[in-house]
Specification:
The protein starts with a helix and ends with a helix. Helix 2 packs antiparallel against helix 3, helix 8 runs antiparallel to helix 9 and helix 9 runs parallel beside helix 11. The chain is mainly alpha-helical and 295 residues long. 82% of the residues lie in helices and 0% in strands. It has 14 helices and no strands.
């Protein structure tokens, strides 16, 4: 009869809901990733079969939690994002949005194979959802972590100019954060990737001038600047040597352009050493006099 069929359907819904829940509890007890994945699949099957409004949101949340525990990060991010949309402006939106961003960020950090589509989706989600989170919950202590993840997503995507802007803002706002050393290092690497030695030098000095930036980070910046100057000099010498046959000529030109700076002084010293090695007394005397006059 219709009543019997209805009753059987209701009993089956309870059975499936209980099965999915018991699977999740067993997975949590054993901390078994494969079991978490099975419970996530069980919740997905339940949600596709039943539309019981009373239990829908609970089962969706359990589904998302199981996906995250199973390290199916992109799927978990999608589910938490959907939950954040569904709750609207309720207080729980902050935690759901934060968890969604975190799941997508974990997907990008994971060493597990991931399709190009999932990589792009995860990066875009971190950038967009992260920006939404920071805008909505700027005063929340967790906003700093999200802000860093957004910058890192741009860096990983090769959007070095955008990444630089966000890393600099992050370090400026959170100089004592645990991710500040990484943010500083990646800022300077962005300039390096762009072959923007002037920008690298300027930003490095900007970091060095920050009164509230820890000394160990400043030491890291100084080392990076020293390496970058040496690399710039080597690159310039190679180009000058290829163009004119005189590797030191480009260094002298650079020293003139950067007169009064550490880089300018180092360029002259390198040019001096080069001409001494070449046994060119005329140029050696000329560079020596410039060194004495300028430095």
């Amino acid at each position: 009869t219709p009543a019997q069929r209805k009753r059987a359907g209701e009993d089956f819904e309870v059975y499936c809901r209980d099965l999915a829940t018991q699977l999740q509890l067993a997975a949590q007890k054993s901390n078994d990733k494969a079991m978490h994945s099975e419970s996530a699949d069980a919740y997905a099957a339940y949600l596709s079969l039943f539309k019981v409004e009373k239990w829908r949101q609970t089962m969706e949340k359990n589904h998302a939690v199981s996906l995250l525990a199973a390290e199916r990060f992109v799927e978990a991010g999608e589910q938490f994002e959907q939950l954040a949309i569904e709750v609207g402006d309720k207080p729980e939106r902050e935690d759901l949005l934060y968890t969604a961003v975190g799941a997508f960020a974990q997907a990008l950090r994971s060493t597990a194979p991931m399709s190009h589509y999932d990589q792009q989706q995860a990066r875009s989600a971190v950038q967009q959802l992260g920006a939404t989170y920071v805008k909505s919950y700027a005063k929340n202590p967790r906003a700093a972590e999200v802000e860093f993840n957004v910058a890192r997503a741009y860096y990983d995507e090769g959007e070095y100019t955008k990444a630089t802007e966000r890393f600099v803002a992050f370090v400026s706002d959170h100089p004592d954060h645990k991710d500040a050393p990484v943010a500083v290092s990646l800022t300077l690497d962005c300039y390096h990737q762009l072959s923007d030695f002037d920008g690298l030098e300027k930003q490095g000095k900007g970091y060095m001038a920050m009164a509230n930036l820890p000394a160990n980070i400043k030491a890291q910046v100084k080392q990076t600047l020293d390496r970058a100057r040496s690399e710039q000099l080597d690159e310039l010498a190679l180009k000058s040597g290829a163009a004119t046959g005189d590797a030191a000529a480009g260094l002298v030109d650079l020293a003139e352009q950067k007169k009064g700076t550490e880089l300018g002084e180092k360029a002259l010293h390198t040019a001096f050493a080069t001409y001494r090695e070449k046994r060119d007394p005329v140029r050696l005397k000329e560079i020596g006099e410039k060194l004495l006059a300028d430095y």
